[in-house]
Specification:
The complex is a heterodimer of chains A (402) and B (361).
Chain A lengths: L1 H16 L7 H22 L4 H21 L1 H24 L4 H5 L1 H18 L1 E3 L2 E7 L2 E3 L1 H26 L10 H21 L2 H19 L2 H21 L1 H11 L10 H13 L22 H9 L1 H24 L3 H25 L17 H17 L5
Antiparallel strand pairs in A: 1-2, 2-3
Helix pairs in contact in A: 1-3, 2-3, 2-4, 3-4, 3-13, 3-14, 4-16, 6-7, 7-9, 7-15, 7-16, 8-9, 8-10, 9-10, 9-15, 10-11, 12-13, 13-14, 14-15, 15-16
Chain B lengths: L1 H15 L2 H13 L1 H6 L16 E2 L5 E6 L2 E3 L7 H4 L10 H5 L1 H4 L8 H10 L3 H5 L4 E2 L4 H11 L4 E7 L5 E7 L11 H6 L14 E2 L35 E3 L2 E4 L1 H9 L34 E3 L2 E6 L10 E7 L7 E8 L4 H19 L1
Parallel strand pairs in B: 1-4
Antiparallel strand pairs in B: 1-2, 2-3, 5-6, 5-13, 7-9, 8-9, 10-11, 11-12, 12-13
Classes of the chains: A mainly alpha (402), B alpha+beta (361).
Chain lengths: 402, 361
């Protein structure tokens, strides 16, 4: 019921405002059909009537699809196709994975696959906007990093779980000590995050790594002092990067005061803020704003485009939906049986929250902008795929999962 | 249990992350929105270039029109400061700035419901989307001729029809090409001769009559209409006269009005489209200053005004004249900056051009 309500709200809003444009009806019908089909598949086979998961997703996807449709009809057609593909892939994944603990058993293989994907992108990837993140197969392009994120969380969760077991079952006097291997993983992960920041200057990815790493570490070990020290050290490293590299400094200043760099680095941000201010609480209405003035409006800055056309109340609703999903994921983690599931769910929930925060915070000038997609809202095949898979994993680990 | 407690704590931290973007949206969408809307570079504050209305001359030849999202000025330098330029956002000058509200199409409705209501009441959308065009009284041919006559000098020449007040030509020099403002922005901004200043209505010159007295008696300054906020309701963007250090500063438009005659029947007019006609101008009580005796050349009169400016500023010459004595003849005002003897000659040349031109008109 919630699902249909969410769908209807979005459709009614948009249908009304474009009442006079019947020429676009085929695309609209395709959007409705593909969205309904994909959501039905997810509902029936993946989330298994776990409505707190599916209803926010339905709302996010619907809003996002309409905004993408408004920005570029061709992309909207592709988006529908991607959503169906992604939900079918999720069904296939769950079929291929009879027990979730298999993930833990094959953690080394998963780690190898993740690293392989990452390097394949670095070696065979095509360059877009100065970063080699894409793999191309003919007409299809794919960002392996999206899947690597999930693999990384699985691997981390399985490692941490072993350390947790070690902690629980070791002799009482050793309990206050930390497992050496665990510390090694922590330090390696921390170094990897800093390396991403220094080498690729990808703040988003680095934050994601740090977030998931220390969340899992804290939940298993409960050593707050180490978390504080690690995160502080990370930010100190980030500050050093800012001081050392000139162009990073300029980007940081463009973030802090985008109006001073309106023609160059701050352009996107400033246009985005103008859009938010222009839309007001209720928005200009679909097709009535000018989101095309914002570069990458269909992708990174879709929240701002939504804010302009549907109002910042709607944008806040989008944030709220994402936050609600995060909350629900964490509560599933709390209820989950077995420490591996619990840790995996925690990691995935953390991944979800940090990922949402990085992109939402980036578009609303809370943190510097780094290119990531807003899950289920932005256009993007690989992001849609990885997020559906993430939700599928969560649903499988959660209370309705086998 | 320990683990669950920590999990709940971690969840709280994660969810707190979402608060900041919400607050930021509120801040920029609500608290700062009026500031952002008013920023000069905000492209959302003005209509898209393609929907902006045209500026036409009296024969409906375009002086400024939009083409493929670009603002095009066919007369280039000849109308530079008068018509002004239009860059992204609210970065405009001249008539493009003062006619901003007129040229822009009606603003899009602020809400979805407003949009639906508008669409219901108007079936033909496209016409609504383009702003209205404005027809000026300028004659492109005369404008070009006088611009060429002016050459490299700095100053103003403004010609009007006496009976109607229609401004037929208004040349302000040095000028700039409004099509290329963005490229040569730095250069134009740094030019000591200030090409961006529209000297016709807003250039102010300290002038006295040829007898050396102030043109407007000092006891009249307070109540004089030229010292009020809007001295010429039919000339958008004209500035009012000033008194600085005891000297009266008048614009070439005021000199034109002086040259036109002793009563207030002459009101310089730049817009011939009826949208500015709403304000009826009644003759003020204050007497118009007299120019005194002018130099008479066969059939026309030239009044030389004294213009030793402030000691620091460049000197200049002012010539106003009426090339014909008939009631509906032409009247012109000429200001040449950088004190040169050419002003009188230039006046005579102008008269010649005007005579030739009025025969063909």
């Amino acid at each position: 019921m919630l699902t249909s309500l969410a769908l209807l709200t979005g459709h009614a809003l948009c249908g009304l405002s474009i009442a006079q444009r019947w020429s676009v009806a085929p695309v609209l019908l395709w959007g409705l059909a593909s969205g309904a089909a994909a959501l039905t598949i997810l509902h029936r086979f993946v989330t298994r009537w776990d409505e707190p998961i599916l209803a926010p997703i339905a709302l996010l996807y619907t809003l996002g699809w309409f905004e993408v449709w408004r920005l570029d009809r061709e992309l909207a057609v592709k988006q529908g196709l991607w959503f169906i593909t992604a939900s079918l892939a999720a069904v296939a994944l769950l079929r291929a994975l009879p027990r979730i603990n298999l993930l833990e058993r094959y953690r080394h293989a998963l780690l190898a696959v993740g690293i392989g994907l990452l390097f394949s992108a670095l070696i065979f990837g095509t360059e877009v906007n100065g970063a080699k993140l894409w793999l191309r197969f003919g007409p299809l392009s794919f960002q392996p990093i999206e899947v690597v994120k999930i693999l990384l969380v699985i691997v981390l969760a399985s490692f941490w779980r072993r350390f947790h077991l070690w902690m629980v079952f070791s002799k009482p006097r050793r309990k206050d000590r930390l497992p050496k291997r665990g510390m090694l993983v922590l330090v390696l992960g921390w170094a990897l995050a800093l390396a991403t920041l220094v080498v690729q200057r990808d703040l988003g990815m680095a934050l994601l790594l740090i977030g998931v790493l220390f969340t899992l570490f804290y939940v298993t070990m409960g050593r707050r002092d180490l978390v504080v020290a690690g995160v502080t050290a990370f930010f100190a490293g980030a500050a050093a990067v800012v001081v050392l590299f000139d162009h990073v400094r300029i980007r940081i200043r463009a973030w802090w005061d985008p109006f001073a760099f309106e023609e160059t680095d701050g352009y996107q941000m400033v246009q985005g803020l103008y859009g938010v201010a222009d839309g007001g609480p209720w928005g200009r209405g679909l097709f009535l704003g000018r989101p095309h003035l914002i570069p990458e409006a269909h992708n990174d800055f879709i929240l701002v485009a939504i804010s302009q056309e549907l109002g910042w109340l709607t944008a806040i609703a989008v944030i709220f939906c994402s936050a609600f999903l995060g909350y629900h994921f964490f509560s599933l983690a709390k209820e989950a049986r077995g420490s591996f599931r619990r840790l995996l769910l925690t990691g995935l929930a953390s991944l979800w929250c940090v990922q949402c925060f990085i992109i939402i915070g980036g578009t609303t000038k809370v943190i510097p902008m780094t290119g990531l997609t807003l899950p289920f809202v932005s256009y993007g095949g690989s992001s849609l795929l990885s997020n559906v898979l993430l939700v599928a994993l969560i649903a499988r680990c959660g209370r309705h999962g086998a | 249990m320990e683990l669950e407690r920590r999990l709940a704590k971690v969840a709280r931290y994660h969810l707190a992350l979402f608060l900041l973007p919400m607050l930021s949206l509120l801040y920029y969408g609500w608290w700062k929105a009026p500031d952002l809307d008013q920023r000069p570079d905000n492209p959302l504050g003005t209509a898209p270039m393609s929907r902006r209305g045209d500026i036409l001359d009296r024969h409906h030849q375009p002086l400024a029109h939009s083409q493929n999202g670009q603002r095009v000025y066919p007369l280039k330098e000849k109308v530079g400061p008068l018509v002004g330029y239009h860059l992204r956002g609210r970065n405009q000058s001249g008539l493009e700035a003062s006619l901003q509200a007129t040229l822009s199409p009606p603003p899009p409705p602020k809400s979805l419901w407003g949009a639906i209501a508008r669409d219901r009441s108007n079936s033909r959308k496209d016409e609504l989307l383009k702003g209205p065009s404005v027809v000026l009284t300028i004659d492109s041919g005369l404008q070009s001729k006088l611009y060429q006559l002016f050459g490299n000098r700095a100053g103003v020449i403004v010609v009007a029809e006496r009976a109607s007040g229609d401004i037929l030509a208004a040349v302000s020099c040095p000028s700039f090409d409004p099509n290329r403002v963005a490229e040569s922005w730095q250069e134009l901004r740094g030019d000591p001769r200030s090409p961006f200043i529209e000297r016709i209505g807003s250039g102010l010159y300290p002038v006295r009559s040829s007898t050396g007295t102030d043109l407007i008696a000092s006891d009249l300054v307070e109540g004089h209409p030229w010292f009020s906020d809007n001295p010429f309701p039919r000339y958008p963007g004209a500035s009012s006269a000033l008194t600085v250090e005891g000297r009266q500063l008048l614009s070439p438009l005021m000199l034109l009005a002086l040259a036109a005659g002793p009563d207030w029947s002459f009101q310089p007019r730049l817009l011939s489209s009826p949208l500015e006609e709403t304000e009826s101008v009644s003759a003020p009580e204050v007497p118009l200053p007299s120019l005194g005796e002018g130099q008479s050349h066969n059939g026309f009169q030239l009044f030389r005004l004294l213009g030793p400016a402030f000691r620091e500023s460049p000197a200049f010459d002012v010539v106003v004249g009426r090339p014909g004595e008939e009631k509906n003849g032409l009247v012109f005002a000429l200001v040449v900056e950088e004190h040169s003897e050419g002003a009188s000659e230039l006046g005579k040349e102008t008269v010649k051009i005007l005579r030739e031109w009025s025969q063909t008109w």
